[in-house]
């Protein structure tokens, strides 16, 4: 009975993550009508930090931060930078490029995690991993070339490559975060504190400080409180209630919902190759998860 309840509780958290994360592209485009990616990142990260600080205080865990070693704090700040870079470049992509193209590049992170695990975690290379990576990169290549490799559209290629760097940063963040042993809420709180500091520096270097309009605050607060901040906690709670091999495949429902919202709300131009690329990236992630589960059962 306990396992049954845990599974249903975990399924609730997974469903919450899918719904929240699928809204990120749409809210990013809404808020960036008047804000650039540096400004949006700063305000969103600050709201996320304040939200998690309040949760940490409520849990009576905030004081633990002062007992962390310099090494632990340094690693948390490094991970915060990787998280900051991911969102900053992702927001740039949704502001400047076709949302569906960016969406496909965004969901390369499971594939990059496989590659980084080989290098950093010394996992063995298998034919199944190679197949997963090849399928994923094929999907991305189809989107970037719009199905015709001889007629590359360079108008947004630079932006898509920048988004890919951000996606790689998130994959590196995910792999390195496995070494963190401190309280979950505190670690995520520090990530967004670091992101707030880094984005404040980026505003003063590449942009200018400006106060958001009332309509912008709606997107900023929803994104900062729910789409980023609390969704991180839901994701970890889901992993604690269910086996990771059960949880991960369902996350690939997210880009499908996101793509549908972008088309419905923003009338994004649709090319059949976008669907092909999106399906290949999703298949790649699901295959990688199934391969990982199969290895654990052996």
Concise description?
The chain is 79% helix and 0% strand. With 298 residues, the chain is mostly helical.
Q: Tell me what portion of residues adopts beta-strand conformation.
A: under 5%
Whole-angstrom Rg: 19 Å
What's the pLDDT, averaged over the residues?
A: 80
- In terms of quaternary structure, the protein is single chain
| Dominant shape | globular
Structural class: mainly alpha
Q: State the major sheet.
A: none
SS field, number of helical segments: 13
Helix percentage range: over 70%
Overview of this protein structure:
- There is one protein chain.
- The chain is an all-alpha fold and 298 residues long.
- The protein is built from 13 helices and no strands.
- Helix 1 runs parallel beside helix 12 (254-266), helix 4 (70-96) runs antiparallel to helix 5 and helix 9 packs antiparallel against helix 10 (214-241).
- It is globular and about 55 Å long.
- It starts with a helix and ends with a helix.
């Amino acid at each position: 009975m306990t396992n049954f309840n845990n599974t249903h509780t975990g399924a609730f958290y997974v469903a919450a993550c899918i719904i929240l994360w699928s809204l990120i592209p749409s809210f990013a485009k809404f808020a960036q009508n008047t804000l650039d990616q540096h400004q949006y990142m700063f305000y969103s990260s600050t709201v996320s930090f304040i939200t998690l600080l309040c949760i940490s205080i409520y849990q009576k865990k905030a004081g633990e931060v002062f007992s962390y070693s310099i090494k632990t704090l340094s690693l948390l700040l490094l991970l915060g930078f990787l998280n900051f870079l991911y969102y900053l470049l992702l927001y740039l992509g949704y502001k400047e490029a076709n949302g569906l193209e960016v969406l496909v590049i965004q969901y390369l992170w499971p594939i990059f995690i496989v590659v980084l695990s080989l290098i950093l975690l010394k996992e063995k290379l298998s034919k199944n991993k190679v197949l997963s990576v090849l399928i994923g990169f094929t999907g991305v290549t189809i989107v970037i070339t719009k199905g015709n490799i001889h007629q590359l559209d360079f108008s947004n290629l630079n932006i898509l490559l920048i988004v890919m760097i951000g996606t790689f940063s998130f994959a590196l963040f995910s792999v390195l975060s496995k070494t963190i042993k401190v309280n979950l809420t505190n670690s995520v709180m520090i990530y967004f504190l670091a992101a707030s500091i880094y984005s404040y520096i980026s505003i003063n270097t590449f942009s200018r400080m400006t106060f958001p309009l009332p309509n912008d605050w709606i997107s900023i607060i929803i994104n900062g409180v729910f789409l980023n901040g609390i969704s991180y906690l839901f994701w970890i709670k889901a992993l604690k209630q269910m086996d990771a091999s059960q949880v991960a495949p369902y996350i690939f429902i997210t880009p499908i919902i996101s793509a549908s919202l972008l088309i419905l709300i923003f009338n994004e131009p649709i090319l059949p190759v976008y669907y092909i690329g999106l399906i290949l990236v999703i298949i790649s992630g699901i295959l990688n998860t199934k391969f990982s589960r199969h290895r654990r059962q052996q």
